[in-house]
Amino acid sequence: MNKDQKNEVIELLKDKFKEYNNFYVTNTESLTVAQIGNLRRICFDKKVEMKVAKNTLIKKALEGLDNDRFSGVYESLNGVTALLFSENAKEPALIISSFRKAGNMEKPVLKAAFIDGDIYAGDDQLKEQARSYRGDHWSAAIACQECYQRSECR
Q1: Over the stretch 49-79, which tens digit does the pLDDT of each residue have?
Q2: How far is 2 from 12, CA to CA, in rounded Å?
């Protein structure tokens, strides 16, 4: 990838980060091509944009927008990274949860989530927030997973 191509990717990512108030940073390492394709289809059907990019380019895009605002995300930028962008804060959490359950697997792993300006780091945070019910956006998104999957909230 030459410098112009890298700059093009950085600008594309900046546009996505500006467009969406919510994004998830996930690890999709060890998923097969078929599994990634399936995950992309699910995301598309649920109006969640999935983008795969190099960690350095993601970091440069975030730094170029607001280094301080996104600094808590930087530690999660390692390994294979797929970004999930959504207007709806809960939808990526629902996708990750149902994808894991359907495939009886642990991937994709949540590395971090940026929800309305708050950063939640680590896959264990997903489970912890699901138990806490603190009333914030993240907890509401996770808590609603169960009723959503039973079609009560759709």
Answers
A1: 999 999 999 999 999 999 899 999 999 999 9
A2: 16
